[in-house]
Amino acid sequence: MSEARMSLPVARGFGETTRRDKWWVTPLVVFLGLSAFIVYSTWAAFQGKHYTHGPYLSPFYSPELWGESPHAWFGPRPSWWPGWLIFSPALLILWMPGGLRVTCYYYRGAYYKAFWADPPSCAVGEPRKSYWGENKWPLLIQNIHRYFLYIAIVFIFLLAHDAWKAMWFTDPVTRSTSFGIGLGTLVLTVNVALLGGFTFGCHAFRHLIGGKLDQLSTAKIRKPLYDCSSCLNRSHMAWAWISLFWVAFSDVYVRLCSMGIWKDWRII
Amino acid sequence: MSSTDTQIMITLRIWRGDANGGKFEDYRTPVAEGMVVLDAVHRVQAEQANDMAVRWNCKAGKCGSCSAEINGKPGLMCMTQLTHLPLDEPITIEPMRAFPRVKDLVTDVSWNYRVKKRIKPFKPRKPDASDGTWRMGQADVDRVQEFRKCIECFLCQDVCHVLRDHHLHEEFIGPRFLVHIAALEMHPLDTEDRLPELKEANGIGYCNITKCCTKVCPEHITITDNAIIPLKERVVDEYYDPLTRLWRLVWPKKNPNDV
Ligand code: SF4
Ligand code: SF4
Ligand code: FES
Ligand code: FES
To answer: Among A73, A167, A241, B165, which has the minimal tally of Cβ within 10 Å of its Cβ?
Structure first.
């Protein structure tokens, strides 16, 4: 646009507003919630132990590509892994689901506010004058989101497989395997269901599955899939938080059972 | 207004001034149940401040004229019930901050009209039904119908920090016009391609999806989730995703309406 700059009221300073409500509560809760998750998941990922218990595998460690547990796909830590470099099966894979969350449209809007005060809250003054949003680097990278989605869809199947495996218990004496359901089975099953609700309500999924079509009503398969995704998408924020909490709780559950602090409750 | 004995005195703290500056002034006025902010402002105008400028038209939340900031939140004065506000403290009423001030509560929103003129208009495909018109699926029309509820109150433009705080009016068209483009771009009959300017001149990348626009929309249009993000995804298809670009090389689009 080539029109001259308009004469606008001076932008307010950081935190300045005429709002009367407690506008800082939501960004503060987001800040604390996300920080708590980042701290816990980082700590848990570096532990490298207590991530399995019987047939259960912590979702932070799945898929276990290399590792000491029977869940490992390719056996123990590879010999070519440099000795000085810390090894944990979680560190190899956690960036993938992490990438989905970091580039998720909901989380982006939430952490731009809570961590970067851009804006601190609606109609509240900002700390910085310069701004280019997602229009230039580095935030242009957010457009990679759909690639993390593709990986996340694979993870849904992997975690569903873990939940299935969590239904088969090996008798410590006879070594025979039989079907069963423990509290941990339920924890891991609920986990994959919640992550599914989050992943399939993703804006990029909604777009790719049908949203990109202008004449969607004639698409026999994609229309109902789009409707399902839209339905999940309407509460994408809720799915984001509940699944985030639950995936951490699943790790806590497996960890504490493995450490002998909690005892897994066998239902069937 | 109901009987006078149910009236209570409240304080309106109204911004008075013009483009050169101004300040808040307090007005004590009686109000009764059922009154909206605009009623109270009109009463002050009639009884205490005849020269106060306030724009309004329908008093029914449909013309989009009475936009202002009430206790710091962008809203329609005619749709904000006084009983929903804390009446034991002054209620601040000020003009929108994303547009030049004219006088008191009135701002110059003409920038929006200039932006709208730049958006490529509706361009339907050739009529293809036997009666010389078109057929459209109801579900496809329903999707764009949401965007057509817009009353052009420009509250979303006002709250958007890209305009309000960063004054990027030359780089970014704002949520209202992203909604307008979504209505055209997703229309089942439209064949125009607005993605190049959406990415460049219209600056969709400036939106950081913080959803303030959605929160203030009096028509409850899901601006960010249903209009802006789907448009961002279309821009990704066209400009940022190497796989869709490769796909397009092998199977070129016949018309912009195709996937
Ligand atoms: S979501 Fe985007 S358009 Fe809406 S207020 Fe936020 S930055 Fe502005
Ligand atoms: S989209 Fe909503 S808030 Fe924005 S101008 Fe239209 S009606 Fe007003
Ligand atoms: S996962 Fe949230 S938008 Fe894709
Ligand atoms: S006077 Fe028409 S919207 Fe308020």
So the answer is: A73
B93 interaction partners in chain A (CB closer than 8 Å):
none
Query: Does the C-beta of B43 come closer than 6 Å to ligand 4?
Result: no
Q: Nearest CA to CA, how far is B192 from chain A (Å)?
A: 12
CA A41 to CA A113: how far, in whole Å? 22
A121, A124, A128, A129 alpha-carbon torsion, rounded to 10°: 130
pLDDT in tens, B174-225: 999 999 999 999 999 999 999 999 999 999 999 999 999 999 999 999 999 9
Ligand 3 neighbour A236 (Cβ under 6 A)? yes
- Which ipTM was obtained for this model? 0.93
Residue A8 forms part of a structural domain: no
Q: How many CB contacts within 8 angstroms connect chain A with chain B?
A: 165
- Contact across the interface for B114 and A9, Cβ inside 8 Å: no
The residue with greater pLDDT, B5 or B94, is B94
Is the shortest distance between the CB of B46 and ligand 4 below 6 Å?
no
**Partner residue facing A126 (CB), from B161, B203, B209:** B161
Region B112-132 average pLDDT: 95
- Last residue within a domain, chosen from B59, B75, B107: B107
- pLDDT of B259 strictly over 70: no
In whole angstroms, what is the distance from residue B223 CA to residue B60 CA?
A: 22
Q: Which of B111, B159, B240 sits opposite A123 (nearest CB)?
A: B159
Is residue A134 a part of any domain in this protein?
yes
State the Cα–Cα distance between residues A42 and A90, nearest whole angstrom. 9
A222: tokens are 């994609």
Q: What is the three-class DSSP state of B131?
A: coil
Domain, as residue range, for B147? 110-250
Quick one: pLDDT at residue A184?
96
- Domain with A208, as residue range(s), is 25-258
Taking the C-alpha atoms of residue B184 and residue B194, their distance in angstroms, rounded to an integer, is: 9
Overall average pLDDT of the B136-150 stretch: 95
